[in-house]
Amino acid sequence: MNAWELYDKVIAGVPTDDTVRECLQGTNWMCIVTERGRYGLNAVQPGTAVDPRKVVGRPLREVAALAKSWCFNEAAAGIAAINAARNQTEFFRPEGEQDAFLRYRDRLLGKKVACVGHFAYLERRLEGLCDLFVLERKPEGNDYPDTACEYLLPEMDAVFITGSAFANKTMPRLLKLCENAFTVISGPSTPMDPVLFGYGADALCGFCVTDDEKMRAALNGDGPVFACGQMVCLERKEV
Questions:
Q1: Fewer beta carbons within 10 angstroms: which end of the chain, N or C?
Q2: 206 neighbors 231 (Cβ within 8 angstroms)
């Protein structure tokens, strides 16, 4: 597989008839707002920012192509642009539990489970349920370093991958390593694009922004990001 194949297919699915109106940047999140009133989130590292001249006023697909940039703050804007196209409530019919870890609790019972990224309240959700391995770029506590992915992921029964792995370009390799596991891409940075099912994902659990005021407050640190919209899930079997 061409290293950029997954990215190229996802970018190609972004419409050409929309334009970026705003690029809003907070401490932990970036939001792209389009002229058609669509929103897309992506996580950012504190202290990073993208030059608005590379984003605002430009076609949405052109901005989405920044997902391939090795400047990770530009890549974050690219993924946010992809999410502005894909992560819209009109495309989903939420049924059942939409929190990825609660949705698949029964499937994880007694299994070896890895999480690439230390998701919030992870231990509280999975404590005592499974044999849990957490891999992080900046490990804390019992976390494993993310370089352990090459050794641990092929042994797992289930793997949850943070959507942030798109921006840092590790997603294609992570999906390859998880080909024998039930694999979920999760978090607000997750592009809800069925193309990912062709590369090993079994489920996508992302987020759609529905409230402009609460989104802006969350970016300013005045509220949780999950208060500004709703979680959505899409499974391979639904496509």
A1: N
A2: yes
pLDDT at 1: 63
How far is C-alpha 82 from the geometric centre of its chain's CA atoms?
11
Q: How far is CA 134 from the centre of its chain?
A: 17
Pairing of strands 29-34, 39-43: antiparallel
Residue among 212, 239, 229, 184 at smallest CA distance from 37: 212
Q: Are 201 and 177 in contact (CB under 8 A)?
A: no
How far is residue 239's CA from residue 4's CA, in Å, rounded to a whole number? 23
Q: Burial letters for 212-236: b for 16+ Cβ neighbours within 10 Å, e otherwise?
A: eebbbbbbeeeeebeebbebbbbee
pLDDT digits (tens, 9 = 90+) for 68-106: 999 988 999 999 999 999 999 988 877 778 888 889 999
Q: pTM of the full predicted structure? A: 0.93
Distance CA 193, CA 13 (A): 8
Q: Per residue in 3-42, pLDDT tens?
A: 799 999 999 999 999 999 999 999 889 999 999 999 999 9
SS3 44: coil
Sign of the CA dihedral running 54, 169, 132, 230? positive
CB distance 14 to 81 below 8 Å:
yes
Distance separating alpha carbons of residues 199 and 214, to the nearest angstrom:
34
